[in-house]
Amino acid sequence: MVGAPPGQRGIDRRVVSIHLVGGGWPFDDDGAVYRPFFEEVSAHAEAAGKLEGAHLAIVLVRDGDAPEKFAELVTAYEQFAKLEPVGVLSPENAPIDPAVFADVDGIVVWGGLTPAYRTSLEPCFGEIRRLVASGVPYLGFSAGAAIAAERAIVGGWKIDTVEIGSEDASEDLEQLTVAEGIGLIDLSVDVHAAQWGSVSRLIAAVEAGAVDGGVAIDEHTALIVGEGPLRVAGRGSVWKVTPDSGSVRVSTAGADAS
Asked: What is the pLDDT of residue 256?
């Protein structure tokens, strides 16, 4: 079922070039979810006269496998653009220095344990907002999409004793947990929507008043916030949940509805 594309309400229009991907890796198509981001990254680098390639910060907050994942992502991303990758690799919950983002042409915040990404990147929230507002494209994948919000849903599968989703999608948290995010958009974001059933968590969060509204994004799907109308790329759907007279309203949009 496909409804109208998500509306402009709930998006901070002062910032542009935000690409929120609901998960799903590796990609098994022509890279439709990622190509718009890398076109913008390349354009930013070209405008800055960087002939050697775009300086792309790739943030990985992971214990153990970050170097291997970084190499995998660089190999995949080099299909889309000429790059000078900047690895921002951190153990879970270790703070990241905002200075690592100096002179970048794009920012990728990847996936893993969402609460750990939020904690590690918290010192950088202001700098990331500044860069994106200046025109540096941002791509958040899974955890990186969730924490892009002003009010970030970082995990949980219960409200009090009521189950609102799968424990497998809880991010190691029992209770629904909403915390300050980067603040690029003011709609909250959940991810792996159809695949993990996280739409129910978003619905419960809106109904309980924990967040004012939000979107849940399927895997292999991106919600793109740019200077024009919002776009959906990829093969899945974006589910929008808004309050509606004491209840909630749910609508969906796919790429062919943009």
From this structure: 60
